[in-house]
From TrEMBL:
Keyword match Hydrolase: no
Electron transport is among the record's keywords: no
Keywords on record: Monooxygenase, Oxidoreductase, Signal
Cross-referenced InterPro entries: ABM_dom (IPR007138), AI-2_Isomerase_LsrG (IPR050744), Dimeric_a/b-barrel (IPR011008)
Residue span, ABM domain: 29-119
Protein name: Antibiotic biosynthesis monooxygenase
GO molecular function: monooxygenase activity
Signal peptide range in chain numbering: 1-23
Alphabetical list of PROSITE patterns matching this protein: ABM (PS51725)
Pfam families the record matches: ABM
Amino acid sequence: MKAKLFSALALILMSFSVGKATAQDKGQMVRIAKITVDPVQLEAYNAALTEQMTIAVKLEPGVLTYYAVADKDNPANITILEIYANEAAYQSHIQTPHFKKYKATVEKMVKSLELINVDVIGIAKKD
């Protein structure tokens, strides 16, 4: 199951552009969040997540990308790929009212959370 999620995220990462990671890419903060949600609260969780992601990308110039995917066999296992312009953009993001609202809303919905910081080592994309 974990292999499927990481394969899906690898495909997403490869969708950004063709070639090696550039200096600009290397300054970015890229994180994978692995979340297990209470299945009974999954619909409410997905709504809160979608709201938070939409607002963040719209309002925050340093929030570059969010991809949220659910395991087909167990939709309560969610993996999010987050890309920020840099560490400062991420630190700013977690202080915003919309992020704090999301965290308070989902606090009792999330059964587990694992945050994994990653480095982009290569990217590929169809134009």
